[in-house]
Specification:
Elements lengths: L9 E9 L6 E5 L6 E11 L8 E7 L2 E2 L6 E9 L12 E6 L2 E2 L16 E8 L9 E9 L5 E10 L7 E6 L8 E9 L2
Length: about 190
């Protein structure tokens, strides 16, 4: 067996274990856009201290997290378990002038917090490879919603101007209490 040469490896950048943060946000730093243009984020077992809540992602650079009122565009589509009405093609959410990128569809199925209910997600942050390219994210979230049904969401979003992304923030409608939940960040090596 020979090691693959010339890049293409996923390198672990950081892992954060969440244990009753006492806040509705968590900022992850250390994303190095000069080394990586693609980051994979794996979040498992996230919940809040309130039922029927939403999760979002914001991007940032060395100046901090960007939360301008119309700095993001996103779309999120999903499907709930058989115990509830199914989504159809036109029931997703979208916003071309938002202050965040939503990763679950709050109009139809927000994240629950009863025993066993939590959110897990895998998404990619892709940073500018040329001047003036917008950074974007895309991925999936799975969770048990506030009605106890399994739910799958596919989402994508972008910051509507170019920045050198070196951080992102997970934002919730309530305090994050994901006892033992975690967020791991990997970078895809360019060379």
């Amino acid at each position: 067996f020979a090691d693959a040469g010339g890049g293409g490896a996923w390198n672990l950048i950081s892992t954060t274990v969440i244990d009753d943060l006492g806040a509705a946000t968590l900022t992850i730093t250390g994303l190095n856009s000069s080394t990586y243009h693609t980051f994979m984020v794996a979040m498992t077992g996230l919940t809040t201290n309130g039922d029927n809540k939403n999760f979002s992602v914001l991007l940032g650079d060395s100046s901090g997290i960007d939360n301008g009122s119309s700095d993001y565009s996103f779309v999120v589509l999903g499907q709930k378990g058989a115990s509830e009405a199914n989504f159809t093609g036109g029931t997703g959410m979208k916003d071309n002038a938002s202050n965040k990128i939503l990763i679950n569809n709050s109009n139809h199925a927000s994240v629950g917090n009863a025993s066993g209910e939590s959110l897990s997600s895998v998404f990619y942050i892709q940073t500018a490879t040329a001047v003036n390219m917008f950074p974007f994210i895309h991925g999936t979230s799975t969770y048990i919603n506030n009605a106890g049904a399994a739910t799958l969401m596919t989402f994508a979003g972008a910051r509507l101007s170019a920045i050198t992304v070196d951080r992102f923030q997970l934002l919730s409608d309530a305090t994050l209490i994901a006892d033992g939940g975690s967020i791991s960040v990997y970078g895809l090596a360019k060379s």
